[in-house]
Amino acid sequence: MRVLQINAVYGFGSTGLIAQDISKMLVDSGNESFVAYQKANVIPENSYKVGNNLDWKYHAVHTRVFGKQGYASRGETKKLLKWIDKIKPDVVHFHNLHSNYINLNMLCDYLNQKNIPAVITMHDCWYFTGKCSHYVEAKCNRWQVSCGQCPLLKTEVPSLFFDNTSKVLFDRTSNLKKIPNLTLVGCSEWIANEAKKSLLKDANIEVVRNGVDTSIFTPHESDFRKEHNIKNSEFVILGMANKWGSVANRSTVEKIINSSDENTKIVIVGCNEETKAYFDSFENVVTVGFVKDRQLLSDIYASADVFVNLTHADTLPTVNMESICCGTPVITFNCTGSPELIDKDSGYVVNEDDAEGIIEKIESIKNEPLKFDVAEKQHKFDKNLSYRRYLDIYSTVKLTW
Fold first, then answer.
1. Please, what's the b/e burial string for 35-71 (b: 16 or more CB within 10 A of its CB; e: otherwise)?
2. pTM score
3. Whether domain 224-381 has CATH 3.40.50.2000
4. How far is 140 from 150, CA to CA, in rounded Å?
5. pLDDT, tens only, 147-165
6. Residue 48: phi, psi to the nearest 5?
7. Strand segments (E) across 172-270
8. Backbone phi, then psi, for 354, in 5-degree steps?
9. What's residue 400's pLDDT?
10. What is the pLDDT of residue 279?
11. I need a labelling partner for 74 at 20 to 30 A (CA). Which of 54, 119, 293, 349 fits?
């Protein structure tokens, strides 16, 4: 079986690592893997780079001026389609196509003409909206009918002049429906259920959770505490700067920090200069810059006593799985896909923006640490087991077509 994956990145970032893992799984199982990508830190075999800097910049300008992402890059997409003609895949697997490098409408028309089935992994909500990747914080459900009057028009990928979200939603979903055998794969039950409310609800919809490398993310000793002058007797709360540093969480964060005693340290990972300056004003906060090394990230998880994820909109936060596989329980809001990863023995789920609830659960873990079978959780979140589900999906869409 020949499978072509198309993704903005390969070998780095969450979706790039997933594409790489699936490619390896395909080859290891005796199938053929092909990859089309925009950017990569390692060039995969049987691959094609889509576009160039000039075309990407033009596409980005086109997106911002007209509010229509995925409509430019016609010439570069035509070249890609010629390459696809040569490799003749049995299945095409879409990941992230919304990085200003490919013309989605042309790609869908091509698959329709050539009778090639497609699998789409919904890493976010972009495929069934007229613009945004997440709409939860805006409390918008216009995507279920027609979009328009977009509350996120000037955010995320800002549309400078026009609100074309209604047209984009119609074009996007209509063109995807042209694909002869379309399967949507949600990374979480949450996003799969959201897709069932969308204009793509008649497609086959499956769930394949992302996984993690359990050979890296596992309980172990490290020197992280020693290197950051954190005593072994101190209780460590771990957070990620992109969530803890957001304005939306400012009140919650300050309540958590101010409620912590002198025997508690809060470690914030992924700080830029602005977030570092903010958190350095608190005596009990330790700031760490961006961490690309997954082994170092594992060291940090394994050194913490609890990971507090203040996400409001995540399809399926990999960080939750990484923490639990390192033996560290998680506290998170009851939002989107984050709660799905928390079992009763591996953490707590509290209501959105419930700072007091988070503080209460932190104290609970401090007084009586949660104990869970890490091996069981690692089996549940093992990327190798998770991604093999795609083999069944590829085979099904190929055979039914």
1. bbbbbbeeebeebbbbbeeebbeebbebbbebbbbbb
2. 0.90
3. yes
4. 8
5. 988 888 888 788 888 889 8
6. -140, 130
7. 182-186, 204-207, 235-240, 264-269
8. -85, 85
9. 59
10. 93
11. 119
Residue type for position 165: T
Q: ∠ CA 364-284-243 to the nearest 5 degrees?
A: 75
Spatial CB neighbours of 228, under 8 Å, sequence gap ≥ 6 = 267, 286, 288
Nearest to 336 by CA among 121, 197, 196, 190: 190
The average pLDDT across 44-55 equals 95
Place of tokens 């596409």: 59
d(CA 116, CA 70): 20
- Do residues 184 and 93 lie in contact, with contact meaning Cβ atoms separated by under 8 Å? no
Q: Where are the domains of the chain?
A: 2-211+383-400, 224-381
Q: Is pLDDT larger for residue 322 or for residue 14?
A: 322
Q: Residue 205 corresponds to which amino acid?
A: I
219-234 pLDDT, tens per residue?
999 999 999 999 999 9
The answer to whether the CB of 123 falls within 8 A of the CB of 15 is: yes
pLDDT given at position 115: 92
**β 47-49/182-186 pair status:** unpaired
Tens digits of residue pLDDT in 367-396: 999 999 999 999 999 999 999 999 999 988
Q: According to CATH, what is the number of the domain 2-211+383-400?
A: 3.40.50.2000
263 contacts 333 by C-beta, under 8 angstroms: no
CA–CA separation, 251 and 219 (whole Å): 32
With 60 as the cut, is the pLDDT of residue 40 above it? yes
